[in-house]
Amino acid sequence: MAQRHLISIDAKFKKPSKQIDKKYSSDYDFYIENNKKIIKVEIKASRAINTKIRGGLETKALSFDSGEPYWMNFQQIKLGIANVFIFVGVWVDKIIYWVLTNKEVKQCPIRSHQHRGGIEYQIGITGKNISDFQKFLVEPAELVEIIKSKIK
């Protein structure tokens, strides 16, 4: 869903292949052409879910201004595969985009191992820490240009 959504925002997001990247093995979602180089892009999406309600996602879904406590868990972050990550936060009535470079994800203080001893990480965004991500917030029409400016 998130991949199709981003392509609909900007056709500069391209699906990678062995013709573009000889080492490609389905390990990142998109690339963006940047002069003669490519920028490898990984997409991570999560729904904002109410942390006080038990049940399915449809009962836990929240509107952006609900005031209820929420949690979004961006999982399976593999730091060695992409130059940049787009985190897509989804509420019932709003979608937010954060762009973080590989280095910014590595330096994120709330990044944690997803599995004991594994190479995958996760980042949980909540109502309590979302302001820490304000500096990474990007408007949808500016995604590609911001990514290019962050990866030189």
Structure description:
By secondary structure, this protein is an alpha+beta fold. The protein has one domain (2-150): Trna Endonuclease, Chain: A, domain 1 (3-Layer(aba) Sandwich), CATH 3.40.1350. It is built from 4 helices and 9 strands, in the order αβββαβββαβββα. The protein has helices at 2-9, 57-60, 102-106, 143-150; strands at 30-34, 37-47, 49-50, 70-78, 84-90, 95-101, 112-113, 120-126, 137-138. The strands form 2 sheets. A 5-stranded mixed beta sheet has the order 1-2-5-6-9. A 4-stranded antiparallel beta sheet has the order 3-4-8-7. A hairpin with a 2-residue loop joins strand 1 and strand 2 (37-47). The longest helix is centred in the first third of the chain and has 8 residues, at 2-9. The protein is globular and about 50 Å long. The chain starts with a helix and ends with a helix. The mean pLDDT is 92. The chain crosses the membrane at residues 79-100. This is DUF4365 domain-containing protein. It comes from Candidatus Nealsonbacteria bacterium RIFCSPLOWO2_02_39_8. Keywords: Membrane, Transmembrane, Transmembrane helix.
From the alpha-carbon coordinates, what is the Rg to the nearest angstrom?
Answer: 16 Å
Rounded mean pLDDT score: 92
Broad structural category: alpha+beta
Helix content: 10-25%
What CATH calls the topology is: Trna Endonuclease, Chain: A, domain 1
**What is the distance, rounded to the nearest whole angstrom, between the alpha carbons of the first and last residues?**
29 Å
